[in-house]
Amino acid sequence: MKMNHLKKIISEEIIKYGFDTIGFSNPSVSKKTSERYKEFISKNYHADMKWLERHYEKKINPKKLWDKVETIIVIGHNYSPEKNPLYLNNLKNLANISVYAQNQDYHSIIKEKLIKIQSWLLNTLNLKTKIFVDTSPILEKYFAEKSGIGWQGKHSNIVSKNFGSWLFLAEIFLPIKLSETKSSLDGCGTCEKCIEICPTDAISENYKIDSRKCISYLTIENKGPIPFSLRKKIGNKIYGCDDCLSICPWNKFSKETSEKKYKSSTHNSLLFFLNFDEEKFEEYFYKSPIKRIGWIRFLRNIIIASGNSKNKNFIKYIFKHINNKSSIVRGACIWSLFQLLDGKGKEKLKQSIISKEKNKYVLYELALVS
Closest Cα partner for 67 from 177, 139, 173, 190? Predict the structure, then answer.
């Protein structure tokens, strides 16, 4: 079977499963990219995500993941929302969740489709393959650019002329060589809107993110307290941040996703989640990527956002968590309550904490705000 015909029938089969864009690349990683990745690690921009350091060799050489790989198929799945989500930042009583996590977990949705494609490749073309969905050590944004899916914008995410900044990525490793599709050219030009809008100045320079400042990292990967200096800048965001994606001018060409499992019909208030307990959290998010951060991190985020709301009606609901077994939650409660209480209320809370709290970190939180 001729190479171009083989690419055509594989692409047609992938499109049948609702994917939106496809590219083909060889598995090599350029020296320049390897060096940039090493620099990212050396500057500790990956923060506590130590697996990015451990996986360096696999990242720069996909054959260490599967020695038979000769071609990487990169697949894009559009998850563009109906409306630009920037308006959610102004709704201070709202629990602002990143677009990708507002409904079901994309990992499960995409993997289910890829398993069927993988079966078709084996049964129809006798090709054994490997499939990946954002959880393996692959430089997927690099390969997405190399295969023509889009280019890495200054926010470091993939930008597409057809889908803007709203693409999930997945990969299929093939054991045969197929011709590459043309790589994407950088379409950002002089635009720096994503750099300018970042609430915490996490985009340290073009195409580089300092995870230690990134709200997505702070609310998802970070297991400890959210840094004191960044809390007010988080606003109402409780899981991730889309500001740098949302502002991208290329989004004007995007169309709302057709995948119903990505869409969200409601946006819940902070109060809705302040009334949760751990059991309710597990039940409510059982199909959501939010579940993986666990109850404590989620509650920490809700409490910080509640402090930023300036809504004094939240005070009594935050007090419900002031004796939580987690020092991280107790510390967040102190900070949040000090944003909402008046002078007498702050003094009363301070004396109450001093009389019973033994944890040094929680007492440090008290010292910071009082």
Answer: 173
Tens place of pLDDT for every residue, the chain, 370 residues? 677 889 999 999 999 999 999 999 999 999 988 888 888 788 787 777 776 788 888 889 999 999 999 999 999 999 999 999 999 999 999 999 999 999 999 999 999 999 999 999 999 999 999 999 987 899 999 999 999 999 999 999 999 999 999 999 999 999 999 999 999 999 999 999 999 999 999 997 767 899 999 999 999 999 999 999 999 999 999 999 999 999 999 999 999 999 999 998 789 999 999 999 999 999 999 999 999 999 999 999 999 999 999 999 999 999 999 999 999 999 999 999 999 999 999 999 999 999 999 999 999 999 999 8
Same domain, 168 and 311: no
| Domain, as residue range, for 352 | 268-370
- What are the phi and psi torsion angles at 28 (to 5°)? -85, 150
Active site residue 242: no
At 261, the amino acid letter reads K
Measured at the CA of 53, the angle between CA 76 and CA 129, to 5 degrees, comes to 40
The total number of structural domains in the chain stands at 2
Tell me the two tokens of residue 6.
């083989």
Distance of alpha carbon 157 from alpha carbon 161, whole angstroms = 13
What b/e string do you get for 340-353 counting C-beta neighbours within 10 Å, with b at 16 or more? bbeeeebeebbeeb
Looking at 174, 189, 212, the residue that finishes a domain is: 174
Among candidate residues 174, 207, 224, the one where a domain is terminated: 174
Identify which of 88, 87, 236, 250 has the alpha carbon closest to the alpha carbon of residue 167: 250
Catalytic residue among 134, 201, 243, 277: 134
Whole-angstrom Cα distance, residue 306 to residue 317?
10
Contacts of residue 322, defined as CB under 8 A and 6 or more positions apart, other chains included, come to 330, 333, 334, 337
Per the CB < 8 A criterion, the answer to whether 34 and 51 are in contact is no
- Say yes or no: 155 and 7 in one domain: yes
pTM higher than 0.90: yes
How far apart, in whole angstroms, are the C-alpha atoms of residue 78 and residue 117? 18
In this structure, the answer to whether residues 46 and 158 fall within a common structural domain is yes
